[in-house]
Automatic annotation (TrEMBL):
Source species: Candidatus Nitrosocosmicus oleophilus
Superkingdom of origin: Archaea
Protein name as annotated: Uncharacterized protein
């Protein structure tokens, strides 16, 4: 349970960072988040 919470926080923070760095295409962000979730699962 705790690992999933940390994972979600990490994904959220990383997505925010991506958006801040100019990756405003939400599809790209979502694809990246899915890839990271698969890798970390």
């Amino acid at each position: 349970m705790q690992i999933m919470v940390v994972l979600r926080l990490t994904l959220t923070e990383s997505t925010i960072i991506l958006i801040e760095y100019g990756y405003k295409d939400s599809a790209d962000v979502m694809l990246w988040a899915v890839k990271m979730t698969i890798i970390n699962t």
